[in-house]
Amino acid sequence: MASSDPVHEFDSLRAQSxxxxxxxxxxxxxxxxxxxxxxxxTLSPAIVAAGGTPVIITAEAEKYxxxxxxxxxxxxxxxxxxxxxxxxxxxxxxLVHVAISERSGYDHGMAQPALLVxxxxxxxxxxxxxxxxxxxxxxxxxxxxxxxxxxxVEAQLHGKSKVxxxxxxx
Length: 170
What we know:
- GO terms for molecular function: antioxidant activity; oxidoreductase activity.
- It comes from Mycena venus.
- The structure is a single chain.
- The chain has a single domain (6-157), classed as Glutaredoxin.
- 36% of the residues are buried.
- Strands 3-2-1-6-7 form a five-stranded mixed sheet, with helices on both faces.
- The radius of gyration is 15 Å and the shape is globular.
- The chain has helices spanning 6-15, 31-49, 65-72, 85-92, 146-157, and strands spanning 19-24, 52-58, 77-80, 100-101, 110-111, 114-119, 124-129.
- The longest helix is centred in the first third of the chain and has 19 residues, at 31-49.
- It has 170 residues and is of the alpha/beta class.
- Helix 2 (31-49) links the parallel strand 1 and strand 2 (52-58).
Protein backbone atom coordinates (compact mmCIF):
# COMPACT_ATOMS: atom_id res chain seq x y z
CA MET A 1 0.00 0.00 0.00
CA ALA A 2 1.10 3.58 -0.52
CA SER A 3 3.25 4.88 2.27
CA SER A 4 1.04 6.69 4.77
CA ASP A 5 3.94 8.99 5.66
CA PRO A 6 6.74 8.63 3.11
CA VAL A 7 8.96 11.18 4.87
CA HIS A 8 8.74 9.31 8.18
CA GLU A 9 9.32 5.99 6.41
CA PHE A 10 12.44 7.36 4.68
CA ASP A 11 13.80 8.84 7.92
CA SER A 12 13.13 5.58 9.78
CA LEU A 13 14.98 3.55 7.16
CA ARG A 14 17.91 5.96 7.34
CA ALA A 15 18.01 5.76 11.15
CA GLN A 16 18.08 1.96 11.03
CA SER A 17 20.97 1.76 8.57
CA UNK A 18 24.53 2.92 8.20
CA UNK A 19 23.29 4.64 5.04
CA UNK A 20 20.35 4.66 2.66
CA UNK A 21 20.76 4.23 -1.11
CA UNK A 22 17.59 5.81 -2.51
CA UNK A 23 16.60 5.71 -6.17
CA UNK A 24 13.62 7.63 -7.56
CA UNK A 25 12.07 6.20 -10.72
CA UNK A 26 9.27 7.27 -13.07
CA UNK A 27 7.21 4.10 -13.40
CA UNK A 28 6.94 0.47 -14.39
CA UNK A 29 6.37 1.48 -18.02
CA UNK A 30 9.76 3.23 -18.38
CA UNK A 31 12.42 0.95 -19.93
CA UNK A 32 15.23 3.20 -18.71
CA UNK A 33 13.87 2.98 -15.15
CA UNK A 34 13.58 -0.79 -15.38
CA UNK A 35 17.21 -1.02 -16.47
CA UNK A 36 18.34 1.25 -13.63
CA UNK A 37 16.37 -0.71 -11.03
CA UNK A 38 17.67 -4.02 -12.42
CA UNK A 39 21.19 -2.74 -11.77
CA UNK A 40 20.15 -1.70 -8.26
CA UNK A 41 18.85 -5.24 -7.71
CA THR A 42 22.28 -6.67 -8.57
CA LEU A 43 24.02 -4.15 -6.29
CA SER A 44 21.60 -4.60 -3.38
CA PRO A 45 23.45 -7.52 -1.70
CA ALA A 46 26.66 -5.46 -1.58
CA ILE A 47 24.79 -2.40 -0.29
CA VAL A 48 23.16 -4.46 2.46
CA ALA A 49 26.47 -6.16 3.32
CA ALA A 50 27.98 -2.69 3.82
CA GLY A 51 25.22 -1.81 6.30
CA GLY A 52 23.05 0.12 3.86
CA THR A 53 19.44 -0.05 2.84
CA PRO A 54 18.51 0.22 -0.82
CA VAL A 55 15.09 1.78 -1.42
CA ILE A 56 13.16 2.65 -4.56
CA ILE A 57 10.77 5.61 -4.56
CA THR A 58 7.99 6.39 -7.02
CA ALA A 59 4.94 8.60 -7.43
CA GLU A 60 3.33 5.88 -9.55
CA ALA A 61 0.23 4.16 -8.19
CA GLU A 62 1.03 1.23 -5.92
CA LYS A 63 -0.85 -1.21 -8.13
CA TYR A 64 2.17 -1.17 -10.48
CA UNK A 65 4.81 -1.97 -7.85
CA UNK A 66 4.56 -5.73 -8.37
CA UNK A 67 5.08 -5.22 -12.12
CA UNK A 68 8.18 -3.15 -11.39
CA UNK A 69 9.56 -5.80 -9.05
CA UNK A 70 8.87 -8.60 -11.55
CA UNK A 71 10.52 -6.71 -14.43
CA UNK A 72 13.62 -5.71 -12.45
CA UNK A 73 14.07 -8.50 -9.87
CA UNK A 74 14.35 -5.77 -7.22
CA UNK A 75 12.91 -7.13 -3.96
CA UNK A 76 14.05 -4.53 -1.45
CA UNK A 77 12.33 -1.63 0.28
CA UNK A 78 10.00 0.62 -1.69
CA UNK A 79 8.25 3.89 -0.89
CA UNK A 80 5.16 4.70 -2.93
CA UNK A 81 4.56 8.44 -2.69
CA UNK A 82 1.86 9.57 -5.15
CA UNK A 83 1.80 13.08 -3.65
CA UNK A 84 5.60 13.51 -3.94
CA UNK A 85 5.85 14.54 -0.29
CA UNK A 86 9.26 12.92 0.14
CA UNK A 87 10.69 14.53 -3.00
CA UNK A 88 9.52 17.93 -1.79
CA UNK A 89 10.91 17.36 1.72
CA UNK A 90 14.32 16.23 0.46
CA UNK A 91 14.44 19.37 -1.70
CA UNK A 92 13.48 21.55 1.29
CA UNK A 93 16.32 19.94 3.27
CA UNK A 94 18.74 20.80 0.45
CA LEU A 95 19.59 17.14 -0.20
CA VAL A 96 18.35 16.54 -3.76
CA HIS A 97 16.01 18.38 -6.13
CA VAL A 98 13.76 15.74 -7.69
CA ALA A 99 12.04 17.19 -10.74
CA ILE A 100 8.27 16.67 -10.82
CA SER A 101 6.70 16.57 -14.30
CA GLU A 102 3.09 16.58 -15.44
CA ARG A 103 1.98 13.20 -16.76
CA SER A 104 -1.35 11.50 -17.25
CA GLY A 105 -2.04 9.04 -14.45
CA TYR A 106 -0.03 11.00 -11.88
CA ASP A 107 -2.45 13.26 -10.01
CA HIS A 108 0.34 15.18 -8.25
CA GLY A 109 2.99 14.87 -10.96
CA MET A 110 5.60 12.26 -11.78
CA ALA A 111 8.88 12.17 -9.86
CA GLN A 112 11.76 12.08 -12.32
CA PRO A 113 14.89 9.93 -11.87
CA ALA A 114 17.11 10.88 -8.96
CA LEU A 115 19.33 9.25 -6.39
CA LEU A 116 20.43 10.08 -2.90
CA VAL A 117 22.91 8.17 -0.77
CA UNK A 118 22.66 9.49 2.75
CA UNK A 119 24.44 8.33 5.89
CA UNK A 120 22.62 7.88 9.18
CA UNK A 121 24.25 11.09 10.48
CA UNK A 122 22.95 13.10 7.50
CA UNK A 123 26.18 13.13 5.48
CA UNK A 124 25.44 13.09 1.75
CA UNK A 125 27.62 10.56 -0.07
CA UNK A 126 25.93 11.07 -3.43
CA UNK A 127 23.13 13.25 -4.76
CA UNK A 128 21.94 13.45 -8.35
CA UNK A 129 18.71 14.32 -10.14
CA UNK A 130 17.82 14.54 -13.81
CA UNK A 131 16.87 17.87 -15.32
CA UNK A 132 14.28 16.85 -17.92
CA UNK A 133 14.97 18.13 -21.43
CA UNK A 134 14.49 17.19 -25.05
CA UNK A 135 18.06 15.88 -25.15
CA UNK A 136 17.42 13.30 -22.41
CA UNK A 137 13.95 12.32 -23.67
CA UNK A 138 12.13 14.30 -21.01
CA UNK A 139 14.16 12.82 -18.15
CA UNK A 140 14.22 9.23 -19.38
CA UNK A 141 17.91 8.70 -20.10
CA UNK A 142 21.40 9.98 -19.22
CA UNK A 143 21.38 8.62 -15.67
CA UNK A 144 24.64 7.85 -13.87
CA UNK A 145 25.75 4.21 -13.97
CA UNK A 146 24.76 2.81 -10.57
CA UNK A 147 27.75 0.47 -10.39
CA UNK A 148 30.05 3.50 -10.63
CA UNK A 149 27.97 5.39 -8.05
CA UNK A 150 28.29 2.37 -5.75
CA UNK A 151 32.10 2.28 -6.25
CA UNK A 152 32.25 5.94 -5.14
CA VAL A 153 30.00 5.31 -2.15
CA GLU A 154 32.03 2.27 -1.13
CA ALA A 155 35.27 4.27 -1.31
CA GLN A 156 33.81 7.06 0.83
CA LEU A 157 32.53 4.56 3.40
CA HIS A 158 36.14 3.40 3.76
CA GLY A 159 37.49 6.95 4.11
CA LYS A 160 38.91 7.06 0.60
CA SER A 161 38.43 9.49 -2.26
CA LYS A 162 35.84 8.92 -4.95
CA VAL A 163 36.94 6.58 -7.72
CA UNK A 164 34.93 8.37 -10.44
CA UNK A 165 34.89 12.14 -10.99
CA UNK A 166 32.22 11.73 -13.66
CA UNK A 167 29.88 8.86 -14.43
CA UNK A 168 29.08 6.89 -17.52
CA UNK A 169 25.45 7.42 -18.45
CA UNK A 170 22.70 5.23 -19.77
